[in-house]
User: Fold these one by one.
Assistant:
Number 1:
Amino acid sequence: MNSVFIIAEAGVNHNGSMEIAKRLIDAAKEAGANAIKFQTYKTENLVTKYAEKANYQKVNTGIGTQFEMLKRYELTYKQFEELKKYCDNIGIEFLSTPFDCESAKFLNELGVRLFKVSSGDLTYLPFLEYIAKFKKPIILSTGMSNLGEIEAAINIINQAGCNDITLLHCTSSYPAKVEDVNLKAIITLKEAFKLPVGYSDHTEGIEVAIAAIAIGATIIEKHLTLDKKLEGPDHKASLSPNEFKFMVDCIRNVEKAMGNGIKKCTKSEEEIKVKARRSIVAKRKLLRGEEITFEDIEFKRPAIGLQPNEVYKIIGKKVKEDIEEDEIIKIEKISW
């Protein structure tokens, strides 16, 4: 099984502060994430000046417009250059979701290895086409969508020359209710599109992300915050550094537990196998030349002689040399 790619979603949890952004990078690295992801956008290219906030954004950031909120958290390209360099220096992959073509062009020139497209832009086909022309892998989040919309997005990306796509199943609510997650959609997406499928988790806790691994998710994306009490739209639906590290550790353990699917006795089971399984044992003293019947034998631990599944081979065979009562019958004492 290939290692699950774990993305620490910083998003705008830096609250516009480079100090917080770098601390998030440090926390993601310490937790064992493969990558940390931010959001790169020009507010003017993303939202109208009077766009209303989503309800969860109102709860977490108060009154005002989306424009005002996003502008407050917008980082400059120069700041992203600094964050990319910081990530390179400590050894964690820098990623950022672009929300406009200008930002996508900047990230490509910055040298990102792949592009993540948000669920909100799955139907923004001209944008998908623009990103696909960079010929870099695309992680396509599928929150709020149906199979037809996903198919159209995949088609436009393929037509633009990109065939390296990973879908992310996602429920775009913050936090997402477990009853709305529908993890089996991961299987549906894999079967429908024959593509790798990951999971972008907005639920509270880590159990849903762990379950996603067990049904084949190749990527896990989860929000990371330094403090859930900080002001901002996503902090409350994020994991603390300690929680994120625990999730990563659990994912790595689940990966090991998944194994290769071959059913066999493991090395660690060999000793128990001898102790727990049974041998064919003489129920009474068997004399040389006697013919063995079912009435002459029973089955007891340990498994160091003939096994119970070999019983039909010895019924009717003759004893080569005397076998004592309660002695485990071994092959060399049977005339074949």
Number 2:
Amino acid sequence: MLHLLYLVAFTVIAFLAIGNLLRSLFTVSMDSQRRYSHPGSSSTDWGQSPLMASRSRYKSVPHPELLDETGNPINEPLLVMRSMSVDDARERLDALFNSSPGTPTERQEEG
């Protein structure tokens, strides 16, 4: 009898989880297809309901790292990688290691 109770409970939980997953997917797909109105245009221009228009009234603010000193969006890549040889990378790592405090060369000079 206890096995039957577990089976029913986990079946109900599985249906609730799948229902929640489908509801979330539907919500995400609707949000991705939502058209945002331009400042100054009304919500009826885009065919939005008043509820959707009230949500899109708030202008999204970009992250501060995506803005320059004057507050304008940056139009350049944020990560630029330069290729370098293995020997160059080894030399730079060795220089960093040797310049750090407590390196073995300092200990040998002291003793």
Number 3:
Amino acid sequence: MDQRLYQLGLHLTPGLGGVLIRYLIAHFGDAQKVFEANFKTLIRVTGVGEALARTILQKEGLRSAESELQKLAKINAGVVFYTDVVFPQRLKSLYDAPVLLYTKGSIDFNTGRFVSLVGTRKATDYGRNITEQIVEGLLNHGVTIVSGLAYGIDISAHRASVRSRIPTIGVMATGIDVVYPDSHSKTAIEMEANGGIVTEYCMGTKPDPMRFPARNRIIAGLSDAVIVVESAKRGGGLLTAEFANNYNRDVFAVPGNLSNPYSIGPNNLISANKAQIFTGVENLLESLSWLSDKSSEKNALPEHFTLEESQIVSLLRQKGEMHIDSLSWESQVSTGKLATLLLNLELQGYVRSLPGKRYTLG
């Protein structure tokens, strides 16, 4: 059977979360072998008790996956698993990243730059105008716009991207077949030609307030930078900014009129040093070192690098230095193979070994 069936089967198995799925894949090597394992072997895996082992052996998740794949095929949607080459590299190193994403459209997660535009659902004319100006200003800079397909700032960002023919991705807190709000369905379809929609939730999942915070972590994790345009004192945009700060992403906030209740959030982020002040697209590009081609040349990896070598160097760029076990976990490369790759990179001068099996860039 297709490995995709088993991967989706793990995702749909009751009681299995992202951490346990990663443990199982690390232990058995792939998803199919998890379902082929016996009871005694399963309970040896960290975090898998007798009850969960029995649940896996009942293969309820596998049966659900068969039905799910049929439904996905009917709407021309698919799934990407965290071990796939096309899975977002920006998410792979995050401790709370989803192990699987449902996708619909023409999405390339790993090419170019990603900027998230977020904010209140009750956007003012000022907020909508600023959002459109930002999107238009990012044209020709290789940027994909990410947002949540909600009312207000989100939909303004997506619609401006469609008009400017800039790739845009909508991250949803519902199933891939349930666009919320329904009035944004037309825009979601238009986005598919140059971007599309993604979610971690199974088909048919309805909107639930509890799922939106989890959705916001994906918006933050997919991004190189997050811009909070407008927000009240509390709001989803501020939560996205908090996730972004935790993930070491750049956060910007658009300053606003002190009498506007939807400027309180961005103004507070700036005053608390939790966001850089956004004064224009050029300010953004300069802060991110995106104005000069020298930056992209400096960060470019040699063409002869394998995917695994590129992934190792990218992880070390993000973290500074890492233990070989952490590198193995986040890259999903076995420690034996990883040791060989690291030695090869060290001989080429790209990586330097440190005491205690730690590594950093050369």
